[in-house]
């Protein structure tokens, strides 16, 4: 089991920036594909950004040009730099990971390790 811990959430006004970080530990025996997802109450969890050695970085259309994902394989970390934040970015953000390559990097079904989440609130 891979243990994931997120940090960096908080509250910000529209147009502001936040940086989320995720650290993986535990039974890591191969390269990890990692991703950020988000969820609001009553809606399905959606992929935001992913990173792995095959696909590189993948982004949801809603965040392209505003969010940047970066993975450090040596440290098993995944960061998400979020700029030009909008109220619709408000959600609980989750870090996810799997060993090997995700077939669909932004699909929840491709990951079997999840963090507890960190809250992001963007006010207008």
Brief descriptors of the model:
124 residues; seven-stranded mixed beta sheet; 54% strand; single chain; 11 strands; globular; four-stranded antiparallel beta sheet
Structural class of the helix and strand makeup? mainly beta
Provide the low-confidence segments as ranges. Answer: none
Helix amount = under 10%
The number of strands is 11
C-alpha-based Rg, rounded: 13 Å
Percent in strands: over 45%
**How many individual helices?**
0
Question: Could you please describe the fold and organization of this structure?
Answer:
This protein has strands at 2-7, 10-13, 18-26, 32-39, 46-52, 56-59, 67-72, 77-82, 91-99, 113-114, 118-123. The protein has 124 residues and is mainly β. The strands form 2 sheets. Strands 2, 4, 5, 6, 9, 10 and 11 form a 7-stranded mixed β-sheet that branches. Strand 5 and strand 6 form a beta hairpin.
């Amino acid at each position: 089991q891979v243990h994931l811990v997120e940090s960096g959430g908080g509250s910000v006004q529209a147009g502001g920036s936040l940086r989320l970080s995720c650290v993986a530990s535990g039974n890591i025996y191969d390269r990890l594909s990692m991703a950020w997802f988000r969820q609001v109450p009553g809606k399905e969890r959606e992929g935001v950004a992913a990173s792995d050695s095959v696909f590189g970085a993948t982004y949801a259309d809603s965040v392209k040009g505003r969010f940047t994902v970066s993975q450090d394989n040596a440290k098993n970390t995944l960061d998400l730099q979020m700029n030009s934040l909008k109220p619709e970015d408000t959600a609980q953000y989750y870090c996810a990971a799997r060993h090997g390559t995700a077939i669909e990097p932004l699909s929840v079904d491709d990951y079997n390790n999840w963090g507890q989440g960190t809250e992001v609130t963007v006010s207008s």
